[in-house]
TrEMBL record:
Region Disordered, annotated ranges: 97-122
This protein's name: ParD-like family protein
Any Pfam family matching the protein: ParD_like
InterPro entries from the UniProt entry: ParD-like
Length: 122
């Protein structure tokens, strides 16, 4: 079986490594296992993709879905949250708003940051 290198999120790799250790699999083997399960779920006639899309669009209740559909919705929500969190830049918002903020320095001490050009003042 040929393999193709790909980039994945560090958190997903760490989760695969931890789960794989419990199943005597490498992280790559665990990711492959999860991908196969996902492929089977998506191609299953028991999974109603229209119902999943309606829940993701906020048009239908989550509780109306079966277990498999709920699992797929949770995976989609997890990905959406990860993408949104990755795009957050609170320092930029605070600086733009002219507001100071507390932050931990390298030693774990609380330091107040100002909204000036350097953001490193008292």
């Amino acid at each position: 079986m040929a393999t193709i290198p790909t980039r994945i999120d560090q958190a997903l790799f760490d989760a695969a490594k931890a789960a794989g250790e419990l199943q005597s699999r490498s992280a790559a083997q665990q990711l492959d296992h999860w991908a196969r399960i996902g492929r089977e779920l998506e191609s299953s006639p028991a999974v109603t993709h229209d119902a999943i899309a309606r829940v993701l669009a906020g048009q239908s209740p989550y509780d109306a879905l079966g277990d498999r559909e709920q699992a797929m919705v949770r995976a989609a929500w997890d990905q959406q949250l990860t993408e949104r969190i990755g795009g957050l830049d609170f320092e930029d918002r605070l600086r733009t708003g002219g507001r100071p903020w507390p932050e931990a320095d390298a030693d774990g001490n609380v330091v107040m940051r100002d909204a000036g050009p350097s953001g490193r003042g008292a």
